[in-house]
Write a structure and sequence with these properties.
Elements (H helix, E strand, L loop, with lengths): L4 E7 L2 E8 L1 E6 L2 E5 L6 E5 L2 E6 L7 E5 L2 E6 L2 E6 L2 E3 L5 H16 L7 H23 L2
Parallel strand pairs: 1-9
Antiparallel strand pairs: 1-2, 3-4, 3-6, 5-8, 6-7, 7-10, 8-9
Helix pairs in contact: 1-2
Length: 140
């Protein structure tokens, strides 16, 4: 039997996931990280993107979208504290595409009501949501 680590994914809205995983993948600010059981302790920020949990035993991966937050890694426990989070299957592609279009318009139009930093954040979140949707479709 393969080794696993306990995984908890929570957001301000509530608890998203609690279970075992052979591997966890998360979008850290310096790049995607992969976490296996007995990983060295780590605390780092997350950027908008997809958190994936591989439960092992041939079961399908669990996919979640997080808008940012923190991840704490201990040798036998991983905790994701997301600013906001949702199961990737529950993402609304039309809403994400519209948010991306609005943010791109705001960035292109310097006289827009939305300030530049807010537009950049919204664009990053929309693009991350669309990537999570695409990855879920491909089944990877």
């Amino acid at each position: 039997m393969a080794m696993t680590v306990h995984v908890d994914i929570v957001s301000a809205e509530g608890h998203l996931y609690s279970g075992q995983g052979e591997m966890i993948y998360a979008p850290a600010v310096m790049g995607e990280i992969g976490i296996a059981p007995r990983h060295a302790p780590l605390v780092t920020q997350l950027k908008p993107g997809e958190v994936r949990v591989d439960p092992g035993s041939g079961k399908p991966h669990e996919h979640f979208y997080v808008s940012g937050g923190m991840i704490e890694v201990q040798p036998f426990k991983v905790t994701v504290l997301a600013d906001t989070g949702v199961r990737a299957a529950d993402l609304d592609e039309a809403a994400a595409s519209e948010a991306k279009r609005r943010a791109e318009d705001a960035l292109a139009n310097s006289a827009a009501d939305m300030d530049l930093a807010k537009a950049q954040v919204e664009l990053a979140e929309a693009v991350a949501q669309l990537r999570a949707i695409e990855r879920l479709r491909k089944g990877s």
